[in-house]
């Protein structure tokens, strides 16, 4: 496998299968939540929202779309973060499997809503959110779909976007093998596949430029993870 990491190796992940075992899915989502916390993946997204929040005005309601929200752990973390800082942040999580995030909604105090949506055909109007984000989703797609999703994020976002995912390299693959040694079969399979079909820095920047998101800068984070994050020009923030 290590020799094949020079290029993306596309393969279906079990978690995406229509007939995936619900019990195994729940276990897998719990594992993903733990990894997101342990390796700081959630904090990476929050760090960019923290940076953006310096330009927010007191009493302003900030609306965020989380694309392919999964179990809703990222939106839930955003709601908690906003509450600690006194921000009025409302999050919509969009996913084809909205039932996975039902518990996150229950504990959000009405600030999180989950909707079923096709991520390649977003049912939202232009500029209907302040920010559009996605985490650990782009590697599931082919290059053309990645470009389409990035364009979709920019279309529905009035202020800016955050797109976070894995980097592909030998060390990342070794890490994921180690971290999933005692995981369930779905996690063990999908983790390895995820790294093999993740991206290099050069690929990320090429896809960003093809999507026309030159305002989004590239950031590398701990745990072999990248984030594309940026705000549009000030004029685009106006209602």
Mean pLDDT figure: 86
Major sheet characteristics: 7 strands, mixed
Count of individual helical segments: 8
Oligomeric state of shown chains: single chain
Helix proportion of residues, in percent? Answer: 25-40%
Instruction: Give start-end ranges of low-pLDDT stretches.
Output: none
What would CATH call the homologous superfamily?
Vaccinia Virus protein VP39
Beta content comes to 15-25%
Gyration radius over CA: 17 Å
CATH class: Alpha Beta
Q: Number of domains in the coordinates?
A: 1
Number of strands: 7
Structural class given helices, strands, pairing? Answer: alpha/beta
The largest beta-sheet arranges its strands as 3-2-1-4-5-7-6
CATH-defined topology: Rossmann fold
Task: Explain what this protein looks like in three dimensions.
This protein is an alpha/beta fold. The chain has a single domain (2-233), classed as Vaccinia Virus protein VP39 (Rossmann fold, 3-Layer(aba) Sandwich), CATH 3.40.50.150. Helices cover 39% and strands 21% of the residues. The chain is built from 8 helices and 7 strands; from the N terminus they run H-H-E-H-E-H-E-E-H-E-H-H-H-E-E. It has a 7-stranded mixed β-sheet with strand order 3-2-1-4-5-7-6, sandwiched between helices. Strand 4 (129-135), helix 5 (143-156) and strand 5 (157-166) form a beta-alpha-beta unit. Helix 6 (170-179) runs antiparallel to helix 7 (185-196). The chain is globular. It starts with 21 loop residues before the first helix and ends in an 8-residue tail after the last strand. 41% of the residues are buried. The model has no long low-confidence stretch (mean pLDDT 86).
């Amino acid at each position: 496998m290590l020799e094949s990491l020079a290029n993306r190796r596309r393969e279906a992940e079990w978690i995406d299968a229509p007939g995936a075992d619900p019990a195994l899915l729940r276990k897998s989502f719990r594992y993903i939540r733990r990894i997101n916390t342990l390796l700081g993946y959630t904090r990476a997204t929050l760090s960019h929202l923290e940076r953006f929040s310096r330009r927010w005005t007191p009493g302003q309601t900030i609306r965020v779309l989380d694309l392919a929200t999964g179990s809703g752990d990222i939106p839930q973390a955003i709601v908690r973060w906003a509450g600690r800082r006194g921000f009025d942040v409302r999050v919509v999580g969009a996913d084809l499997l909205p039932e996975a995030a039902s518990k996150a909604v229950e504990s959000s105090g009405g600030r999180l809503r989950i909707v079923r949506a096709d991520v390649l055909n977003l049912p939202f109007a232009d500029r209907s959110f302040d920010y559009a984000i996605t985490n650990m989703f782009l590697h599931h797609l082919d290059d053309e779909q990645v470009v389409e999703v990035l364009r979709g994020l920019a279309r529905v976002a009035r202020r800016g976007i955050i797109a976070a995912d894995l980097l592909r390299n030998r060390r990342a693959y070794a890490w994921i093998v180690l971290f999933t040694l005692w995981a369930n079969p779905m996690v063990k399979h999908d983790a390895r596949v995820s790294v093999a079909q993740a991206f290099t820095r050069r690929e990320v920047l090429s896809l960003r430029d093809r999507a026309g998101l030159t305002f989004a800068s590239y950031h590398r984070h701990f745990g072999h993870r990248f984030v594309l994050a940026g705000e549009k020009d000030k004029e685009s923030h106006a209602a």
